[in-house]
TrEMBL record:
Gene Ontology molecular-function annotations: ATP binding; phosphoribosylaminoimidazolesuccinocarboxamide synthase activity
Key word Nucleotide-binding present: yes
Protein name per Swiss-Prot or TrEMBL: Phosphoribosylaminoimidazole-succinocarboxamide synthase
Species, as recorded: Helicobacter winghamensis
Family membership noted in the UniProt record: Belongs to the SAICAR synthetase family.
Pathway assignment: Purine metabolism; IMP biosynthesis via de novo pathway; 5-amino-1-(5-phospho-D-ribosyl)imidazole-4-carboxamide from 5-amino-1-(5-phospho-D-ribosyl)imidazole-4-carboxylate: step 1/2
Reaction equation(s) it catalyzes: 5-amino-1-(5-phospho-D-ribosyl)imidazole-4-carboxylate + L-aspartate + ATP = (2S)-2-[5-amino-1-(5-phospho-beta-D-ribosyl)imidazole-4-carboxamido]succinate + ADP + phosphate + 2 H(+)
NCBIfam families given in the database record: purC (TIGR00081)
SUPFAM superfamilies hit by this protein: SAICAR synthase-like
UniProt keyword list: ATP-binding, Ligase, Nucleotide-binding, Purine biosynthesis
HAMAP family found in the cross-reference section: SAICAR_synth
EC number annotated for this UniProt entry: 6.3.2.6
Alphabetical list of PROSITE patterns matching this protein: SAICAR_SYNTHETASE_1, SAICAR_SYNTHETASE_2
GO biological process: 'de novo' IMP biosynthetic process; cobalamin biosynthetic process
Amino acid sequence: MQQKEMLYEGKGKKLYKTDDENLVISEFKDDLTAFNAEKRGSEQGKGILNCKISSEIFKLLEKNGIKTHYVETLADNLMLCKFVKIIPIEVVVRNIATGSLSKRLGIKEGEALPFTLVEFYYKDDALGDPLINDEHALILNCVKSVESLDVLRKIGREVNSVLREFFDKKNLILVDFKLEFGVDKDGNILLADEITPDSCRFWDKDTKEKLDKDRFRQDLGNVKMAYEEILKRILN
Ligand code: TMP
């Protein structure tokens, strides 16, 4: 597989073309950003950790019947993926209130939600990724029909079921996470992007210690150690 020119550079990854038009290579970066990149940092080795974590999670999801863009891990920080057109919606799935939900609605941080909440945010940095409803998503042409939004919600809940149970066995609480989806050349909706401590919140079940990007967002220190701990528990 030959790596060709860069297609796109995001906050956490670079995307490269390959000699196969249906495949791309995703390079996981060490950069860390928060609050729409108002806060920037870097953690040497984070890209490798995230590539390994995301690879393991995509393999687990595929094993459980969830279709993803993952093809194979090519090197420490390089993942081969199917080429998809990204749907500009960030699907956030929440089990426990924290972050922007607590801030927006005043629900106490750490309170278990009575049911799993799925939210849509419009993926637009200039607008600061605003929370949107189904009608907004249709008006913004994010998808063609409300059925596609139902598919995103359904897959979001399925991913939650698989991951919540998996991480529970690793003594971790899956607090919330963000998913992105893309459409492949045949029109299939595939889970895309990454699933890492950059895009999820994990708390230790016993100590409630935060083991994710909140350590960077909130200046808690030991960012890399937290990501290493997540990989270690996934592999054990
Ligand atoms: P929030 O509470 O800040 O809205 O975050 C909800 C979840 O989504 C959390 O697991 C972190 C993740 N997330 C991203 O992956 N990217 C983002 O840009 C934001 C704001 C959150």
